[in-house]
Design goal:
The complex is a heterodimer.
Chain A (H helix, E strand, L loop, with lengths): L3 H21 L3 H25 L4 H31 L13
Helix pairs in contact in A: 1-2, 2-3
Chain B lengths: L1 H21 L3 H21 L3 H26 L1 H7 L7 H20 L15 H10 L2 H22 L4
Classes of the chains: A mainly alpha, B mainly alpha.
Chain lengths: 100, 163
């Protein structure tokens, strides 16, 4: 049987890769994919804890996380389409209207 | 045997995630992420959550990532990406933040009170999840349907140029 800590290590590594990717990349769509990766790292930790506690609620929370991720992806991609129509690119360093 | 499967799935997930970051073409990074999601679904099966694994493949890999791919191809981003040379921005900062975060998560998880505990029940059935979802979690469930309705309307409003 695999100890809980192994799953937690994988979860922490995936979350960290997501964070590093946000600093590393410039196009908005890949930044968005990094956020999805972070959500999945958290989901893995939740399911691992739900198995070892044992409490099924962790799986229900993952269910809701996936629901919210779907809604977030729909709205975020719509924002990106609108931004692309406006600016003709999706480079996060050149989208700097809020910096004044 | 379980350990072998765990190592295969975990290394595939981490490798695909790293490949996603270093891939220049957004189409390839999207496909790498799909691979990572499939490996994570394998890990969920090992953890005794086959329903969540199915949802992961159907909704995440099947619906959300196809939506990403669709937008990438619709906006023709891969052609734009290949043209201009790209330097990784904030490289030292990214390494520092990533290292610190990993250290912090390791310290937190070391404190988890059930690290040495054996696993609980073998496998959760869909019936148990459904019972829990429609009794204890009925209000969040209904709220999530409202959230999705709002997301649908918002996406249509944003993506339409002229209402």
């Amino acid at each position: 049987m695999i100890p809980l800590s192994w799953y937690l290590v994988v979860s922490a590594v995936l979350f960290t890769i997501g964070v590093v990717g946000i600093f590393f990349r410039r196009d908005l769509i890949t930044l968005f994919m990094c956020i999805e990766l972070q959500l999945n790292g958290v989901n893995l930790a939740l399911i691992a804890f739900s198995r070892y506690l044992p409490d099924i609620s962790g799986q229900i929370i993952v269910f809701f996380v996936i629901t919210v991720a779907a809604a977030e992806a729909a709205v975020g991609l719509a924002i990106m389409i609108a931004l692309f129509h406006h600016k003709e690119h999706l480079d996060s360093e050149r989208v700097n209207l809020m910096q004044g | 045997m379980t350990t072998v499967f765990f190592l295969i799935f975990a290394l595939t997930a981490i490798g695909a995630a790293v490949a996603m970051i270093f891939q220049r073409n957004p189409v390839y990074s999207c496909l790498c992420l799909v691979l990572a999601f499939f490996a994570l679904a394998g890990l969920y099966v090992l953890l005794g959550a086959p329903f969540i694994a199915a949802i992961q493949i159907i909704v995440y890999a099947g619906a959300i990532m196809v939506l990403f791919l669709f937008v990438i191809m619709l906006l023709n981003l891969s052609a734009e990406e290949r043209e201009r040379p790209k330097r990784p921005r904030f490289l030292p900062f990214a390494v520092a933040v990533g290292g610190l975060l990993l250290l912090e998560l390791a310290l937190v998880f070391r404190r988890a009170p059930l690290l040495g505990m054996p696993a609980g029940q073998s496998e959760t059935s869909v019936e148990e999840i459904g019972l829990k979802l429609f009794t204890d979690y009925i209000y969040p469930f209904e709220l999530s349907s409202v959230l999705i309705l709002a997301a649908i309307i918002g996406a249509v409003m944003l993506a339409k140029r002229k209402i």
